[in-house]
Write a structure and sequence with these properties.
The protein is α/β, with parallel strands linked by helices. Helix content is about 50%, strand content about 10%. It is globular and about 60 Å long.
């Protein structure tokens, strides 16, 4: 293992938030492959389903959406409960926060295993403030995202545009209602990359570099971090400060 890998190895995870159709999911896959880390995407749904003792389909219905967990899950269980599925010792799910708590537990448990790339699921908020995690966001103009979705999903222009709008709205609402934050808050991330021009492998390069640079700062005291670290004071008086009357 070379020195760069040793430095990066001190980091526990990368969170990746993305606008739909920006290539974020593919970037996450390539990033995990580049680093040799585990990709945590659909796996979150599987683990939450196991933790709540519900089906993957039921868990997926709430993945990155804000709906009534109780209404959907209980309705499904009452209409058709497979033999051996119901657990009499399992409390009925009547509070939507139960899914959020299970999701948060799964995300945090994934980080404890170390070296994971986590896609979405509010992980940039759940894991905020941890220096050994790199928070990233991938964006692109709508006119660039529509062709991406058309090509990848075999949709016409109108359907692709509508799908992007619905997915973006769901993700925005999810973070607002569950965590009282917006996914487009730049301060949630260490790096935001626009894929309008940059190719996906170049974005992977940039994120890998950011991961290395953040890892190098792990031993630095908090008070020595920030944009002013190592900078001298401005010479003379700052010109735009108005003197007191």
């Amino acid at each position: 293992m070379n020195q760069e890998q040793n430095v990066i190895g001190q980091m526990r995870a990368i969170t990746l938030s993305r606008e739909y159709g920006s290539g974020g999911g593919e970037i996450a896959r390539r990033l995990a492959a580049r680093l040799g880390w585990q990709l945590i995407d659909h796996e979150v749904v599987v683990r939450v389903a196991q933790e709540l003792n519900i089906t993957e389909e039921e868990a997926k219905a709430y993945d990155e959406r804000v709906e009534s967990l109780a209404a959907r899950i209980l309705a499904g269980m009452q209409m058709a409960t497979p033999i051996g599925y119901a657990d009499a010792t399992l409390p009925m799910i009547t509070d939507p926060s139960i899914y959020r708590e299970a999701l948060n537990h799964v995300v945090k448990a994934a980080v404890e295993t170390g070296h994971v790339v986590i896609v979405g699921r509010g992980s940039q908020v759940v894991l905020a403030g941890r220096k050994n995690i790199l928070h990233t966001r991938i964006v692109a103009p709508l006119e660039r995202r529509i062709p991406y979705v058309m090509h990848r999903e075999g949709l016409d222009h109108s359907t692709a545009r509508s799908r992007i709008q619905v997915k973006d709205h769901d993700r925005m609402r999810y973070l607002q209602e569950e965590y009282h934050r917006r996914p487009d808050e730049a301060a949630l991330y260490d790096i935001v990359v626009n894929t309008a021009v940059l190719d996906l492998d170049s974005v992977v390069d940039l994120i890998t570099l950011a991961l290395q640079r953040k890892a190098a700062q792990l031993g630095v005291a908090d008070e020595a971090l920030g944009p002013g670290a190592g900078l001298a004071r401005y010479p003379g008086r700052v010109g735009d400060i108005r003197p007191p009357r």
